[in-house]
Amino acid sequence: LGLALYASSLCAVSGAAFLYHDYCVIGAGPSGLQAAYFLQQASRDYVVFERSHAPGSFFALYPRHRKLISINKRYTGKSNSEFNLRHDWNSLLSHDRRLLFRRYSRDFFPDADAMVRYLEDFASLLKLQVQYNTAIIHVTLERDRQAWNGHYFLLTDQDRQNYKCSSLLVATGTWVPNVVNFPGSEYVEGYETVSINPEDFAGQTVLILGRGNSAFETAENILGVTNFIHMVSRSRVRLSWATHYVGDLRAINNGLLDTYQLKSLDGLLEGDLEDLAIIKDKKGKLHITLRFYLENRNTSAGIDSVTLPQDELDNFATRAPYDRVIRCLGWKFDFSIYNRSLRMMPGKGNKKKYPQIKPSYESRSTRGLFVLGTASHSVDFRKSAGGFIHGFRYTTRAVHRLLENRHHGVPWPSTVYPITQLTNSIIKRVNEASGLYQMFSILADIILLRENATAFEYLEEYPVGVLAELETQTGRKAPNGLFVVIMEYGRNFSGADKDVFYYNRAVGEAQHAWQSNFLHPVIYYYKRLPTEREMRLRPPDWPLPRPDAVHHIVEDFLTDWTAPNAHILPLRRFLENCLSTDLRNFFAESCFLFAFTRQKLPPFCRQGYVRMQGLVGSEGLRRHAVEAGLLEDYAPTDFSGDRPPDSREGSQDQLLRDHAIPVRPLQHLVNAKDE
Asked: If we measure between CA atoms, which residue out of 53, 23, 44, 20 comes closest to residue 123?
């Protein structure tokens, strides 16, 4: 009968009319809208399905107490828009300056209603193709050799309308509440439905299950009206300032830690929730016991016949009865709508709430199915910011670039520069780039060297987990070696048990840069592209396999890596050692001298001076260089015979005896004729 019903359903689907799109996006939350923006900018055929009447329906309900924990830093002292995105955790990427979140809220921790308004404007002002009130209830595959990925995705909505897509982008987030079943769990209230009016908890004793931000957010709301609050979870509390993971407990919600440690009745407990049991007495009070105490009792017997832990241990921590128990255990991905043909499997261990995906954000089992946004957080869970807007806005752009290359032959965007601009390019990116800064250890800039290291090609924010597939995924070639620019914290500086405020926690000397603790740039050099095997065998806490050379730019208190001696000079020397070349910049006089005294000119002279490019010489410029110590004063001081004071012969003789002295990089070169 089951086979017959399944066959009939297939026949019904096959006979129904399909609306076709190249790309289908499920979910009009932040990641779905971000994907839609990039698809629209590329003029691709796409549609976004949203079950609600407006985008961002999750934020219309959550967080329950309406305060977001994503910061909205409106002022940084900088006018650089890319730099400012480092401290704007709510805006999506677009070309429209009106769609910056600071225009929607002045609060450092904004109200969730502001996010709802923002997402509505993002969809409407950019005219994104969102189909509202459309709940996708079933997704399956149709094999077809002519399809992009060897199959089409067939989607069915609540009205039995069918859709066919070549690529499927899942941006539904994690919205199914995590529920733990144990004896008495029917007495537990869920975070999604519990009252948010503090007066409803006045004079009550409350137990909260969970230890994330939703649990502490709930506790913070009722902290001042309850008798006391206990919080139980299987793991110890993890503070975001210690783990450097924004999903851990944030300071805005941690008032209960104060009342616990300062002995004001509230407290935290550790224990496996599946070992608990709740018994309700005749007065409606809830008693906490352990499951094994109930294994042999008569289920119809009253509480008086049940052995409680305090009967054997009279100082049992939770011996006092509770008025309410609240579940705050977060959410998980909804696997229910996906047919088994897609093989959408949950992850393992603490990643089981997410679907299994590759570092490219593509399903491990189904080609052409990509997971975006919060649901893609398994790639960097507890490592980086990929589960949050300020992280997945960049990973979504990376996925779009991968799709553009795969299906439309559009290579990953890149820029080619002469090798003399290598140091400048790296310094500029590590000081401005928001994607590198937010998705540290996950996204990296790739520098592909051209033959003989005369030029390089710069690719921004590529997922390092698929570095071995770079040529296939980007359409760019890497035959001559590469640099990888990435941001990292110190190896032993992050963890729930770490003291991140210890004395001498910061490193200030360039020679000790490898010991830097705080977020700082790291440059890896490879003579050839790493293989997939090398990527698999890399150490567990390394983002990349062992390089041929590595350089740490020393951490900086202001995150401003522009100090000539501490930051730029060590970087330049590292690059010169890797490339066996001279990356210094020179005045024309030095290049003139090198032309007579060296067999090979430095790249700056070959690409500038020899091509009649450089600064136009003047007495003012020369005098400035002398006063700054960049050139010796070779102006003649003693004249004899008929030689006029302004004769160049003496100065040229002196020039040939002087050493060439480098200067700092020149950002813009203008044509000048050598006299």
From this structure: 53
